Amino acid sequence: MKTYYSISEVEKICNVKHYTLRYWEKIHPILLSPKKGQHGRRYYTEKDIQAINHISQHRSDFQKVISQVDVSEKLSVHTTQILAELRKIKDLLAS
Asked: What is the CA radius of gyration of the chain?
């Protein structure tokens, strides 16, 4: 088992495009934050791969929640709730 995986390796392992991985880093920073090398190369761990698989499996649920929430509410009350849910998911992945 490797310690770190490149973005191209993760793309193949998880069947998720590299641009999607980068996007998910932006919208799910609590769940997905690979290490970056000197030149900005991403290095993913097994934990990151688990998070990617989790996001991939549940992305339709995330999209439904986001689409049902008004933008102004999302920026206030629901953002806090969503962050709390994401923290719970992160804790489950860590255990």
From this structure: 14
CB atoms within 10 A of CB 55: 21
Q: Are 80 and 73 in contact (CB under 8 A)?
A: no
Q: How many residues does the chain have?
A: 95
Give the model's pLDDT for residue 78: 64
**And the tokens for 63?**
């999209």
Q: How much of the chain is in helix, strand and coil states, percent to nearest 5?
A: 70, 5, 25
Q: What is the mean pLDDT of residues 68-77?
A: 60
List of domains in the chain: 7-94 (1.10.1660)
